[in-house]
Amino acid sequence: xxxxxxxxxxxxxxxxxxxxxxxxxxxxxxxxxxxxxxxxxxxxxxxxxxxxxxxxxxxxxxxxxxxxxxxxxxxxxxxxxxxxxxxxxxxxxxxxxxxxxxxxxxxxxxxxxxxxxxxxxxxxxxxxxxxxxxxxxxxxxxxxxxxxxxxxxxxxxxxxxxxxxxxxxxxxx
Length: 173
Prior knowledge:
Helices cover 79% and strands 2% of the residues. It has helices at residues 17-38, 40-50, 55-84, 86-113, 118-136, 139-151, 158-165, 168-172; strands spanning 8-9, 152-153. A two-stranded parallel sheet has the order 1-2. Mean pLDDT is 80; it is low at 1-13.
């Protein structure tokens, strides 16, 4: 069974158990990834101070992630997932997100023990945050929404967006 084999028809607003569980898994997955991504925001201030950087460096690092997120979402959620399939793209993006997040955490730990030159630190933060928060995270909500749209034929379109967007405020907390 591939991504496009199964369509879910909502009867009286209820989804089948299998498709409901996939939708729930996508909701939880998006919430956890958003939570992990947002945890960087409260710790960037202390990281910048410990690495002897200026405050504007933290703004630059966060901005790069946002710009890449905006630019890459269409690529992941549109062209690539249409060509390769939603599940494959979600899996690749999740692996990339996890590995880049892990790499960022390990290298930051080393850098905090022995701060390198400012240009090395800034370059690393820009690249790692760009990968985590921009390039790979961009795929997760856009491809998840496309996957839900692929497996559902909705009587009420609000149910689709509610199911995906509902956990996002929890991720922001």
